[in-house]
Structure formats: structure tokens, C-alpha cells
Amino acid sequence: DPNVEASAWDLDAWVGAYVADASSDANVEKFVQAVDSAILEQIPEIAENARLSEELHASTKSQWRSFLTVLERENPDLLLPPQAVDIAVSMARRGMDVGILLKVYRVAADATWEFLVGVADAVPDDGPERADVLKFLWGRASRWISDSIDRLVLTYFTEREAVFEGAFARRNETVQSLLRGDSIPVDTAAKDLGHPIRAQQTCLVLWFNDAAADGSSTDLEAIAQAIAREVTAPRPLTVAPGSRELWVWLATRQAPDMAGLPAIVERYGARAAIGGPSPGLAGFRTSHREAVDAQRLVLRAGTGSAVTTYADVELACLMSEQPEAAQQLIERELGKLAEPDPALDIVRATLSHYLRNGSNIVLTASELFVHRNTVRYRLDQAEELVGHPLTERRTEMDVALRLVTAGLGR
């Protein structure tokens, strides 16, 4: 650790030790937290969008790691990581003003300066001059930020030009108009989009987690086509609001059977959130809103399976807008059963099935593939942890269990 080394350091030796220390996962997270908390506090357009917030974290982390890898070089070249490009592309595709992108980097520059001042202040007395350390670090960092802005603004405008050109632009504008609720005749919308609007509309949001570094909207298109084939739907309507995210509308005569969806999504290492099927223009909008709400819940909770259906998390979505009320409901209705102990997951799952099956132990045992006595034993455990008979406040317990399953309140 360059901040506690007893021997005297010259600047080059200190920088080498600092890079080694700052590159640890824990110290990288400290930098990301310092910078991103400032950005989210000052730029609501990013803070209010769970997906953009996630892309911001990935960008900051990857850029800081890239910066550290070249910090010791005499003439460091900018190694702009793909995660930094991703957020610029996402902002362009969402129609966000370039001024927001510039503000992100202005706030990041201020936060980085404050962070590096702290680094310099922590240099020990027998180390290099603190002013020299700060001058060196900020000189490299300010150049890095300036070069990043130049490249990413170019990326932004290149993407915006592509978005607003030709058929791609017309399709995106029509979709955005429909989602805004603009008055567009259904037949006109269907013709412009090449999509049967009058049919049942099921919207999916597909995306890659940051761990899937190689995932792109092209890969998501392949997933969308595979899903359409699985449910015997025509070619889906797709719009890419970000470089690693895709909105998909399936048009079917009846509500599609999504049983095969998890296998497809997991095979590609992606995630999916699904809105409910509903016909016509109203269904086009409603299913999209539900899919986006389900995705927001998944990203906020940081948990969940590869596929999340809005119908399964509707209550949690509604309650997630009031996190304090949700937490109070969980604590009041579940007591010790709400504790974040993995061993309690099976007890919670059993109680959840039991409540939804109208207190039918036989049906619950059949669904869980266990003996009825096993169900009774788990229900006894649940009753003891909850602190009151399971016949009381059944609806409230069911809601609380759904919230915990969705990852809220933990």
C-alpha cells in the first residue's frame, strides 16, 4: 500500500505501488461509488432509468481500470473500453440530448478531482510531495476525460445519424409515437411498422448483464427471432433503445405459450422481462409498460431468474415505488420468516404455494413434488416464524411473500 509504506518513495515508485493497490476490486468500487453517486445525484435523467444507471456503473468501472493500466506509461494512449461506448450509444438511441452526455463527464471530472485530492492527502510524509502526486494524477486524468469526451461525442452523433436515417428512423419514430399515446390510425401504424397491430401484443425487454461483456443488440435480435419461432409468431417488431438492450413485440392470435422462453434466454446468457398479452394499440403500449416495469424491478432488486413475467411481480412493481411501505408490510406480516436466510427460501416458497392454492395441502405437495407431511412440517415452521396462525391475514402474507421473492425488503 503506497499510503503506509515506511521507506522513502520517489514519484515513479509511488505511482507503481498506487496502481497495484488501486486496482483491487474493493478500491475500484470506492472510485466508482464516489463518481457515480455524484452523477446520479445531479443528473436525474440517468438516475431515474435503471438500465442507464447500470450502464453508467459499467462504464465508470471499466474506464477507471483502463486508466490505471496506462497510468505508469510515459505517453499513455486512450484505451476507451466498450462499456463507455455503450452508454453513449444508449443515450443517442433513446433520443437524449448530447448535453446530458457532456454533463455526465463534467460531473465525473469534478468527482474525480475530489477523489484524487483525497489520494494525494493520504501520501505519507516520507513519500513524494503531495502536490507532485496530485499534479501527476490530475494531469493524466483530465487528459483522459477530455479525450473520452471527444471520442464519445463523435460516437453519439454517429449513432444519432444512423437512428434518424431512412426506414430505421421512421420505425423508431412510429414506435415512440405509439408509446407516447399519439393518435395514429391502427392500420397506418401497422403499415409503417410492418407489424400486425390488431393481433395480441406481447412485449419483451431483452438485455445482457454487465458480466456478458460480448453481448450486443445483434445477439439480442437473434434471441428475439428464436423466441418468435418458439411461439409460432411472425417476425417480431424490435427496437434497440441501447447497445445491449432490445424491445420486442410479438404478434399472435392468442396469448403465446412462453414455457420454452427461459431455455432460449439462458442459452444466450441474457435476461428477459415480459409484459402481459393484450390486443391492439392499447395492448402495444400496456404490454411494453409492464415489461419495462418488470425489468426496472429486476435491476433494482439485483435478483431474479433469467425470465421475469410482469404477472408474477405486478404487486412488487406497484409496491417498489413505495419502498418504506413495502419494508413495513414485509416486517409486519412475515416477522422472522422475512430474514435473508437462504435456508428459509423453501419455507417461504411452500407457504406461498399454500396460500395461492387456497390452503390445499394436497395440491401444494403435488406442485412442489414433496410428501404432504413435508408441507405440514414447513407450514408449522412458517407459522412459528410469522408469529400468528396462517389462517389470519392471508392476503397480506401473500403480498409480503411476493415482495420478498422479488428481492425487495432484504
Account of the protein in words:
The chain is α+β, with helices and mostly antiparallel strands and 410 residues long. The chain contains 18 helices and six strands. Strands 1, 2, 3, 4, 5 and 6 form a six-stranded mixed β-sheet that branches. Residues 1-8 have low confidence and may be disordered.
- Helical residues, percent: 55-70%
Give the N-to-C terminal Cα separation: 35 Å
Q: What is the 3D shape?
A: flat
Q: What is the H/E string? A: HHHHHHHHHEHEEHEEHEHHHHHH
Helix count, DSSP H or I runs of 4 or more residues: 18
Structural class: alpha+beta
- Tell me the major beta sheet: 6 strands, mixed
* Rounded average pLDDT: 87
Which spans of ≥5 residues are poorly predicted at pLDDT below 50? 1-8
Based on CA atoms alone, the radius of gyration comes out at: 26 Å
* Beta fraction: 5-15%
DSSP, total strands:
6
Please supply descriptive tags for the structure shown above.
disordered N terminus; single chain; 410 residues; alpha+beta
